Amino acid sequence: MPVSTERKTEVDAKLIRLRRRMAERHIDAVRLTTIASAAWITAGAGMYVNESTDLAASSILVTEDRAYVVTDSVEAPRLQHEEELGELGFEFLIKPWYADGDPAAALSAGKQIGHEGSGDGVDFSAELRHLRTTLLDEEILRLRRVSALAAEAMYEAIQAVRPGMSEYEAAAKLAQAARERGGTAVVNLVASDDRIYQYRHPLPTAKPIKRYAMLVLSLRKEGFVPSITRLLHFGPQPEDLRKRALAVARVDARMILGTRPGHTLGSLFELARHAYREEGYPEAIEEHHQGGSMGYQSREIIAHPGDKTPIEHHQAFAWNPSIRGVKSEDTMLVGQHGPEILTSLINWPMWDIEIDGKTLARPAILER
């Protein structure tokens, strides 16, 4: 099947943008070595084997007039036939799987090369991060599609959770739902009952679920990694739990509505700090990060105090405010007409939160 016109258009546009940045930095070529950057430049190709590392199994070398896939004899056939990288305009530099050395060494010799992170040459990480997070129209369509699949996977998994089921079993439901939709659950966190109050990053355990469960998913598919969290309670929830959940929903609503051009990641951190204080939980800002920009990583940049990274149109974010025992998280897009929630669930209980005359629906705890 021929490669799609949309995907070819996306790759061509990205090469133009990348080469413009290369010219600004006066470098001859850029080597893309991470899973995130390789997926970005190839319009979502799976360039990895081991998802426990950030490094891609094959890299991309972009020069002033050509683009190469640097790989070995094991990876090349799949990248050529299934990922269609040749049809997208990439040339292949292939070495035998057992051979040492870099098949791109001759092309790189004597040139100023941009790299991701430390090493010889120019650190080009910041430029690549900005390119990855400022989305083209084709990328926005793909992110919407992948985010909807993440929401579907969450809904299917959490509907299957039952009292007495272990956290391991709940995590297995989440992983299965992600895989059945062609994605992988690169973040798969489950906590139940008291563990939700104790840990912000709860890896699942053998503990049986009794009354209350939290499921957290970051799903990777076609390069993107949208994130979503939902909470489930069996029977009526205690009033204190409901109070906390409504408070964190209000913090989340403030952050989402505040995510607009003219603001920075640092200003969003301060907005969250103020919101927690208003809700009566000032300590929450110290107990966990608040999320940040997303794209080809679940978090590209986490918001920190004083961070001057500007927020722009066509960027996506995943904020995850939390108070002990509750959390609120969706993936959103900064659109031309305001925030667009990409991981919303149909038939989920919602609170309509009013902030400065604007109303935004945020998820409540599902009671079953």
Which residues sit in consecutive blocks of at least 5 with pLDDT less than 50? none
Helical proportion?
25-40%
* Beta-strand percentage range: 25-35%
Largest pleated sheet:
6 strands, mixed
How many domains make up the coordinates? 2
Give the second-level CATH assignment, the architecture of the largest domain: Alpha-Beta Complex
CATH superfamily of the largest domain: Creatinase/methionine aminopeptidase superfamily
Q: For this structure, what is the CATH class of the largest domain?
A: Alpha Beta
Provide the CATH topology of the largest domain.
Creatine Amidinohydrolase
C-alpha termini separation: 46 Å
Explain what this protein looks like in three dimensions.
The protein has helices at 5-25, 35-41, 76-81, 105-108, 125-133, 137-159, 167-180, 194-198, 239-258, 265-279, 284-287, and strands at residues 29-34, 55-63, 67-72, 91-95, 113-115, 122-123, 184-192, 212-220, 227-233, 291-294, 301-302, 316-319, 322-323, 326-327, 330-335, 338-341, 350-355, 358-363, 366-367. The strands form five sheets. A six-stranded mixed β-sheet has the order 4-3-2-1-5-6. The protein has 368 residues and is α+β, with helices and mostly antiparallel strands. The chain folds into two domains: 5-133, Creatine Amidinohydrolase, Chain A, domain 1 (3-Layer(aba) Sandwich), CATH 3.40.350; 137-367, Alpha-Beta Complex (Creatine Amidinohydrolase). Helix content is 35%, strand content 26%. The chain is globular, with a radius of gyration of 22 Å. The mean pLDDT is 97. The protein has eleven helices and 19 strands. Helix 6 (137-159) packs antiparallel against helix 7 (167-180) and helix 9 runs antiparallel to helix 10 (265-279). Helix 3 links the parallel strand 3 and strand 4 (91-95).
